Automatic annotation (TrEMBL):
Protein name from the UniProt record: Annexin
Top-level taxon in the UniProt lineage: Eukaryota
An example Gene Ontology CC term for this record: nucleus
PROSITE patterns assigned: ANNEXIN_1 (PS00223), ANNEXIN_2 (PS51897)
Compositional bias per record (Gly residues), positions renumbered to this chain: 55-68
Gene of this entry: ANXA7
Amino acid sequence: MSYPGYPPTGYPAFPGYPPAGQESSFPPPGQYSYPSGFPPMGGGAYPPTPSSGYPGAGGYPGAGGYPAPGGYPSAPQPGGAPSYPGGQGFGAPPSGAGFSGYPQPPSQSYGGGPAQVPLPGGFPGGPMPSQYPGGQSPYPSQINTESLPSYPVFSPVSLDYSSEPASMTQGTQGTIQPAANFDAMRDAEILRKAMKGFGTDEQAIVDVVASRSNDQRQKIKAAFKTMYGKDLIRDLKSELSGNMEELILALFMPPTYYDAWSLQNAMKGAGTQERVLIEILCTRTNQEIQEIVRCYQSEFGRDLEKDIRSDTSGHFERLLVSMCQGNRDENQNVNHQLAQEDAQRLYQAGEGRLGTDESCFNMILATRSFPQLKATMEAYSRMANRDLLSSVGREFSGNIESGLKTILQCALNRPAFFAERLYYSMKGAGTDDSTLVRIMVARSEIDLVQIKQMFSQMYQKTLGTVIASDTSGDYRRLLLAIVGQ
């Protein structure tokens, strides 16, 4: 398949290779407990995104649509992460060949720097609803509950409920938006009735969970405990199982905690799910990474950089350590002279010499802004008559190759990267449910609208169609509700 405009005239087609608003902090103590075995982690080509905008804090909206080859060679086989009922280990890699090319939009517009993570106002700690008798807010800023031994407890850090959703400032859009006329107590009552008595009304649960933002779900959890003296997550676990349970629990995790938890589980026990480390650390903004590092320390009592060093090695270790500093240049202005110089440096460090100077690639790809990297890729293709992605494939292999390509793919088109990851999570026999769940949940309030569009353009079928054919039951129903159909 070929696409107009990219790669630039004069250099060969890509050979193919083989990706909410989120809160800036965490909820009150004892309020969000999660099962110790909770979802293991796991996991696409790059047509243009219709929206412009460049990623803010809430996530990584794709660039306005940059072509990029798809696929990731040398991916490890799935199944190494801790298992979860009914699902594979998170971090399981995709299989199959990569996508061969992507269309190039005429121009790309990048917005300002990272935006604040969205959180509508009100609770916790906000003004209490006036309709509750006695002037008592049904959503206390802290709810003391006994810690459930099977759950890691999510500690409080300051939450900003006043900022606009990041997706509104990034030129991208999630499929899940905050519900209008939201009433946490009413939703808590609906969920209680759905789980009360014999049997479970899964449709009622789907209707509530899929149409509320993550911030609203946190308020529902607090209201449920206030009203019934019971833990909503624990009740949901007792009523659900398998992939449906994994998906529901992921939706109720605050976004920053979910990323930190995913990283911790990717490095927990025997083996490491490198694809999860790459997917998160190589695609997030500085602010998101810094918040993940703090959450990782506060929730798991561990230093993320030290865990990365102990679980990885060589040039791949150095790349991930660079990523977890959260110190990439985020100036959205492009310096074309620097792009030309960097392209020359990269050529001399790779194709232009015997052997490879890996540190040069690490330095440039870990420090330059995503718009700057896109300009460097264009300069490289003009100079070397070969695209930078294919050069990385010739000079590197294994996890370091996948990590470097992920950075470049996100510079080209972030939604297309995640569309490719989703495609390969469902391609072939079996489904990598952990990757499917993680991406669907993590991008649902950031850029899932653009991911759906890229998916249709890249694979000539809708994301919903593929999900419907690869999943079943309430799990399929909830996934399709998240997709918006």
